[in-house]
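2024-03-11 09:14:02 DEBUG pipeline.ingest accepted 1 chain
2024-03-11 09:14:02 DEBUG pipeline.ingest length=56
2024-03-11 09:14:03 DEBUG pipeline.predict start
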Amino acid sequence: MDVDKIIVLLAGVAGARYLRNRSTARNFVKKQATVEDLQELENFTLERRDKLSEEK
């Protein structure tokens, strides 16, 4: 297998992992999260948003 094919394969795996993790997180928030969980996630979200803004 040449390097280009390996890179494409790894990108596909990373993309699939991202979608799987996003789906898991969304289902948790919709179906199981407590008020405390949502507060913690809100803090994580604000921190992540700030970090991404700094990277621009």
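2024-03-11 09:14:41 DEBUG pipeline.report The radius of gyration is 16 Å.
2024-03-11 09:14:41 DEBUG pipeline.predict end
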